[in-house]
Specification:
Layout lengths: L11 E5 L3 E7 L13 E7 L1 H11 L5 E8 L3 H10 L2 E8 L5 E7 L5 E6 L19 E7 L8 H14 L4 E4 L3 H7 L1 H7 L5 E2 L3 H8 L4 H8 L5 E5 L5 E5 L2 E6 L12 H14 L4 H15 L17
Parallel strand pairs: 1-4, 1-8, 2-6, 4-5, 8-9, 9-10, 10-11
Antiparallel strand pairs: 2-3, 6-7, 11-12, 12-13
Helix pairs in contact: 1-8, 6-7, 8-9
């Protein structure tokens, strides 16, 4: 399965990834060490994998499934929020560890910094996987956060191997330049080897290749992965295949409030468009449109989603 058309496939979208609780703190002045900084703070459902699933459902994919691990503290609230968004969740409840939590510090320019407690996310194990999840699936998407620890790295590989055995295309979002640096580039690339589509942002593409330019980085990665789509924030996205840039997709104008989840919105809309039969450049345009919508409001999910309660 090679070339930029490799991931065109009808059927359900299965996402294996993370469900977390986001605490989004928007501060309009610089953080003041050792004292108070005024902020608007909300608690919202999040997690890269869950966000992608919700945006794919919002973008027209009728059957979106999600496998993730959560704690008992917020399992019911997260399940309700996902179902309300049109996603069919299979949430494994961890009896020992709480649901992952991310504190999102969002500055006046809308850019965010994350403080991450992975919690139950990285305790997803191969035992949580079932080949039946792939029944009728046209695409498997893996959140990169799973690859940064065990046993979730083994769970992700189990899912990938099962998908490839059934000729189901696989995409991976590298998720975090910081976590890639901590794990090591070679270890990460070895862990995700065999993916059909890689969806890095510009920082992740550059750290994975050691090249300073996003176009050069995306082109290099496309010699290892059949299709690479590198997001560049407000500047849009680059589509690369066979070692060259195949399309440059401009960003959509938006009044930025919070960039949290913009990349997940892009990925969800991109994958929905691919499953609907669109070419990579058209799918990237759909992704840019969703990303522009995502930054106009706090949080990482489409508008209208439910909050998270304790049950």
């Amino acid at each position: 399965m090679t070339g930029p058309e490799a991931s065109v496939r009808t059927g359900a979208l299965l996402v294996v990834g993370d469900v977390v609780t986001d605490v989004v703190a928007r501060h309009h002045t610089p953080l003041a060490p050792a004292t108070d900084t005024a902020a608007a703070i909300v608690t919202l459902p999040g997690g890269a994998g869950a966000n992608v699933a919700c945006w794919a459902a919002r973008s027209g994919t009728r059957d979106v499934r999600l496998l993730a691990r959560v704690g008992a503290d917020a399992a019911e609230g997260h399940e309700r929020a996902l179902r309300a968004a049109g996603v069919r969740p299979r949430l494994v409840v961890d009896p020992e560890v709480a649901t992952g939590t991310v504190v999102c510090l969002v500055g006046a320019d809308g850019e965010r910094t994350f403080l991450t407690d992975s919690g139950a996310v990285v305790r997803l194990s191969p035992a949580d996987w079932s080949d039946g999840l792939l029944a009728g699936a046209g695409h498997l998407h893996l959140s990169g956060y799973l690859f940064f620890a065990e046993p979730s790295r083994s769970a992700a590989r189990t899912a990938m191997d099962a998908a490839r055995a059934r000729s189901v295309p696989v995409s991976v979002d590298p998720a975090s330049a910081g976590f890639i640096a901590r794990l090591g580039v070679n270890r990460f690339l070895e862990a995700v080897a065999g993916a059909d589509v890689l969806l890095p942002n510009h920082d992740e593409a550059e750290i994975l290749t050691g090249l300073p330019g996003p176009a050069d980085a995306a082109a290099k990665l496309s010699r290892q992965f059949p299709l690479v789509v590198a997001t560049q924030g407000a500047r849009g996205a680059l589509v690369a295949a066979s070692g060259a840039i195949a399309a440059r997709v401009p960003g959509e104008p938006a009044a930025t409030v919070d960039t949290t989840g913009a990349g997940d919105a892009f990925t969800g809309a991109f994958l929905a468009a691919r499953l609907a039969g669109h070419d990579p450049a058209t799918a990237a345009r759909r992704g840019c449109r969703a990303g522009a919508e995502a930054v106009t409001r706090p949080g990482a999910r489409p508008a209208g989603g439910s909050g998270v309660g304790s049950g």
